[in-house]
Amino acid sequence: MKYMIVLLLALFSTLSMAQETAPFTPDQEKQIENLIHTALFNDPASPRIGAKHPKLTLVNFTDYNCPYCKQLDPMLEKIVQKYPDVAVIIKPLPFKGESSVLAARIALTTWRDHPQQFLSLHEKLMQKRGYHTDGSIKQAQQKAGTTPVTLDEKSMDTIRTNLQLARLVGVQGTPATIIGDELIPGAVPWNTLEEVVKEKLAAANGG
Hints:
Elements: H1 2-18, H2 26-41, E1 48-50, E2 56-62, H3 67-82, E3 86-92, H4 98-113, H5 118-126, H6 134-144, H7 153-169, E4 176-179, E5 182-185, H8 190-204
Parallel strand pairs: 2-3
Antiparallel strand pairs: 1-3, 2-4, 4-5
Helix pairs in contact: 1-2, 1-7, 4-5, 4-7, 5-6
């Protein structure tokens, strides 16, 4: 995971400098695309729900203290229930205080150590109105029936990776969801979300 962070930091620095120097070669552009794609879709530290072998994968940048994320999250779960060829990757992006970071770390560590327990905890964390406290996070763990976890630096590594990745793909706040080749900011209405998913899923199926 630290290797991924180093690569993304180097890439972010290189892209910044490239604005003042010569453009990338086609080979360099391809390497950059591959690195970003791997970080988005193939990072085992990022929780995922839905299809095990999806035809379409959404990437959702989210925050457990974000009210708009809490509006969007049930719709994402509804998408994977309604469309069995769709998966959603969840990338916590804790912008809103220390409790946001703590909730993200506990969720990520639960995914790593007890992945089958993640979704229940994720749902309970998202159901909290307002900002979390240490107490509300513990209460969410208890309600979800999750096994207690010990936090270590790996969860922070994942958060740092998510922060760098968000900058690289143009995320400016949460929620933000990548669907196919589109970045959808904010908590869009259900009809809008479903239409984009249907369009991208049809394209993935060759339609």
